[in-house]
Amino acid sequence: ILGVIANLYVVAMDANGLLIVDQHAAHERILFEQMMARLSQGPIPSQKLLLPQTVELPPKDAAGLRAQIPLLEKMGFGVAEFGDRSFIIDAQPPWVRAESIPQLLRSILDEMNEAGHGINRDRLAEETVAKTVCRHAVKANDILQQEELQRMLDDLQACANPLTCPHGRPTMLRLTHAELERKFGRRPMREE
C-alpha cells in the first residue's frame, strides 16, 4: 500500500504494476460475497432485537410479505404476522442496522412488485444483500488504518469476482508495468 487519495482510493503496488482501489466498491464486493456464502450454507444467524419493530402494510404488500417470510427468515430476519396487515420484526441479520429494517422490508416489497409473479427467490436475496451491503460498506471519507486497508486488499483478492462491486462498478484499476512504460514513452524491458 502506497497511500490513499481523497479518503477513497487506495493506491497500492503488486508484482504486476500499480493498483488504484475504490475502497467502497471493494468493501461492497467483500461483504456481498461473504453474505452470499453464508446464505448458501443455510439460514444466517439472527440477532434478536431489544425492541421488536412493527411494520404495517397495505393489503397487497402484506400478502406479498407473507409469501416471502421463509426467504426473509433464511436471510436472518425474524418476521411474524401480527394481524392482517401488520408484522413484527424481532430479529435481524448481523449486517443490518435496526433502524433500517422497516425501510429494507419496504424496499424488498418494491422489488417484488416490480418483478411480478416471476420473481426468483435467490435473485431477490442477491439483490437485497447487494443493496444492504452498499449501505454498510466503507464510505468515501472513512479513514481506515493501514491494517484495515491491507485486510481489505487481501479479502478482495480472495473474492471470486474481485474486479467489480455487486452493482457492476469496477473495484480497481490496474496499470501494468508495460502500460506505465508505454504511457511514459519508455520501451518495455526485454527478457533475456
How would you describe this structure to a colleague?
- Helices cover 44% and strands 21% of the residues.
- It contains 6 helices and 7 strands.
- The protein is α+β, with helices and mostly antiparallel strands and 192 residues long.
- The strands form 2 sheets. Strands 1-2-3-7 form a 4-stranded antiparallel β-sheet. Strands 4-6-5 form a 3-stranded antiparallel β-sheet, with helices on one face.
Comma- or semicolon-separated keywords:
single chain; 192 residues; alpha+beta; elongated
Tell me how many strands there are: 7
- Globular, elongated, flat, extended or rod-shaped: what is the shape? elongated
What is the string of SSEs from the N terminus onward? EEEHEHEEHHHEH
DSSP strand (E) fraction? 15-25%
Strands side by side in the biggest sheet: 1-2-3-7
Instruction: Give the helix level as a range of percent.
Output: 40-55%
Ends distance: 30 Å
What is the radius of gyration computed over CA atoms, rounded to a whole number of angstroms? 21 Å
Largest sheet: 4 strands, antiparallel
Low-confidence stretches: none
What is the typical, i.e. mean, pLDDT?
84
SS-based class: alpha+beta
State the helix count.
6
